[in-house]
Amino acid sequence: MSWIAKGIVNRTDHRLSMMLAVLSAGAALLLTLIVLFLIKESWPFLSSRWHSGSWFDWLQYQGWYPQENRFGMAPMLLASLAVTLGALIVALPVGLASAIYLQFYANPKVARTFRLLLTLLAGVPSVVFGLWGLTRIVPLIALWQPPGASLLAAILVLSLMVLPTIALTSAAALASVSGELLHGGIALGMRRKTQILHIMLPAARSNIFGGVLLATARALGETMAVLMVAGNVVQFPAGLFDPVRVLTANIALEMSYAMGDHRASLFASGLLLTAMVWLLSWGSYRVTRNGREAGQYG
Amino acid sequence: MLRIFIRLLLLMYVLASASVVQASGGRLTLTGSSTIAPLILEVAKRFESQHPGVRINVQTGGSSRGINDVRLGLADIGMVSRALKASEKDLSAYLIARDGIGIITHKNNPVRNLTGDQIVGIYSGKIRNWEEVGGSNLPITVINKAEGRSTLELFLQHFSLRNSQINAQVVIGDNQQGIKSVSAIAGAIGYVSIGTAEYEENHGTPIKLISMEGEIPTSENVAKGRYQFSRQLNLVVRNTPVGLAKEFIAFAQSDAVKDIIEAQFFVAP
Amino acid sequence: MVDRLFGWLMSGCAALVVSLLLWVLGDVLIEGVAHFSWSFLFTEPEDSGRSGGIAPILVSTLWILSIALVTALPLGLGVAVWLSEFAAGRRRFSDIARVTLDILAGVPSIVYGLFGNAFFSIYLGLGFSLLSGGLTLALMILPVFVRTCESGLRAVNDEWRRGALALGMARSAAIWHILLPAARPAIGAGLVLGIGRATAETAALVFTSGYVDRMPESPLDSGRALAVHIYDLSMNVTGGDSAAYASALVLVVLIVLLNTLAQSLLEDWFKRRVFVS
Amino acid sequence: MRVRDLEVGYGDKTVLSQVSLDIYKGCITALIGPSGCGKTSFLSTLNRLTDHSDARVAGQILFDGQDLLRDSVDTLGLRRRIGMIFQRPNPFPLSIRRNLELPLKEHGIRDRQVRYRKIEKVLKDVGLWEEVSDRLDASALALSGGQQQRLCIARALVLEPEVLLMDEPCSALDPISSGIVEELILRLRGRYTVVIVTHNLAQARRVANYAGFFWMTERVGKLIEFGLCRHLFEAPRHALTAAYVSGARG
Does Cell membrane appear among the keywords (chain A) (predicted)? Predict the structure, then answer.
């Protein structure tokens, strides 16, 4: 499909090719550079943990008290996962339902307006969602269970943030399979619900899954909106109304105040986040590949 | 169109690199304590008006960031709202004002005074309702500061607590955030700079400073030594200050800024 | 009957989403308009932003955004062109580049902030400045921009490539005159994504470009971006909520405006040369 | 142009071998044969377009006394002298004028007036001038298929090549457009050397002076017979040729 390198004869072309190759190498080196810097900055922390034999302590619960030289990240890691999972549990069914409505029930005019609204919302900055959550959701929850800033508030705000992503990608996925399949279903005299749930959704599942992963990465990496509504107490959440602190918010909250091992530990948590994203994209690669293969035979 | 765009692009790069070269001119960067920052902002404005061409950038962070940035050379002067520790003797500090730390509650809270033991009880989670300290039946929302803030360090020191003993419902960053949280939650308790709290109280924010062991937290009492829980506000530099930094520190310590310090409810040294 | 119920359920969910989203947007609009006036855009903030305007903050935001775009656009286009047009002979290398970019695209913005602080602010000595912030954002939007442009270039009709070759045109000429203009929609989409992400970013800027809410005089000054301003107003300033909503309104409108502008600029740029959509 | 012992392969698969023929100046040479027997591959070796695929080419192609397969050949210059037309019309997504202007600019003609004169001339040559002179700045993609193909021919001609390679130039067009393009090719006879690949035997007979017949033997494409068009169709020397062209007679 592309032009093979040996076909370069013109001198300008040659120079361009060289220049662009260098640029691309630079872009690829970027990740290395980022990882290198994260390691370099977190090295004092990692190596001192290593030498004192308490390397895996950050995974065990011992609390986050940098002043007392105790760096337990497990509560924050768990909080990150809980918030992400919670947001997905809320947003996935509602988002899917919206996509189904958009694709199969709405008349074209309504669908266009709906889509426009979703696109607009997908572009709203997270800090605006945070502001809204802080001034609307948190006081609402506080009426019921003070102080209001809690795991629940974070989940609600985040799920609202990822809803447009899930709805839009799922709608696109459904649109790409709908045509022929729908006619086939009608010919078989199937009920609409059966067609959608048992034919369309399974056929589009690999693309829907891609959208969900995108939303997961966004939820996991979200900082400001969560920082603003989650209360930021480092603890294992025992209930929905407990305030929690997630990994990203911890960095934002303490980075500008941290020194020495404390600062290094924050870089280490950055490293941890990068590793999690990497795992996520590797997992999605595996799953979509399997999905595609299964799709061929199933 | 394209050509214009490319020229614009080049121009911007040239501008950017040119300014890198001239940046060291009349520029001073201060970072650190969010308690001192509003004060220094006002001092800097006056200093700038007397020294045209000089530009002073003030960044809030925390006292540790002030120390950190001065050490890394990111800032010319650090703002530190406590005395220097033994481990920080590589820096030199210049006292510009004094400030107290006071306990604040929501304005509608009837409690007027707490003893040290009560405060310890509340912060360690043993006392969970205002009823237990003579208030109305209202759960207590404990507001603590995030790691690295000198206010937190002084608070822990003063009450001989460790941060791991504290059982908080909300953790906040800056003074302002503490005041905002207390004003929004009826049962909240927090501790902030007296200067900041008095300023906010006078501007109609629904919070109030309550007395501790009978000592009333006002800047006047801090000045007269009638309120124990107080601290230094320092400007910190790496070596002996020279040039603009030296001038600025001298200015901040002089009588020329006394009115600013008082207007911010701090105490001139 | 079941079918009808299912339909109602789906429509109900959609209605719920719409009403929630309208609630958010409506709040921003109503609360924002209440505090907004034209002078809000053109005056300096006073009293920690409770009163006064956002002029220096707008200027800082635009500085950061232009530094980010000016850096990321040429770099991103270059990488995209290389990946789609030149990389065929070095499959291994280009595969590595692609996987790397995909991972980079998912890295949380706060991690870019950490990197920007360690690399630009401290290692390169740029300090807390608009330049540090802009460059950090450039890195952040680069991966998405490259991938969008690359897929756009790949989708360009291969027959045009052969046609250009058969006419003895240099590749560089074919790329510049035919392929890039033909990939315009994808480039536009990438640009919109980039502008959206860069303008909305808060976390990565807090410790690269800083908090200073004064008018920046050069890219080496620290400057507060609009998103950071909203964060500060809502978290740290009592009674700052209404100003925060007004700033949020400005931010949302700014993003929509910039996107429209970018799209039309791109159209204008290519219009005289290319006729394809 | 003399082709000697040409062999073309992709990977370890040889698609064309032992092809030798002469292409005469100013004549139209038609290459016929079933699909997949290497005609298009042969055509793309003539302007070194094979460089841009993973094809390997051996043998000799003498053009102006030089072997154009040697590495040192300036392929960009070569392609200016040897133009090519593809099966599907592929005008660039630009205006009609810019489609013709771009190659001229690329080959260093800086004077706009000169370019415009050349453009007008080739458009008249291919009979497009009357149809499009009032909308030179409209998109080339808005033209009909036949017009697009003539534009592509014009685009090749505007560089004043000596040889024109045509890869089934009419097969993607409707009969009327196809007829117009065929007339155009006939008009080019004498002024340009044309090599045309076609499946349409009747067309080959109508336009060509010389003809070559390709056939697959043992999965490798070979040139079975080459000669004057008349001879090849009316008195083929080879049995395969006879069988193939009889389709045209029948």
Answer: yes
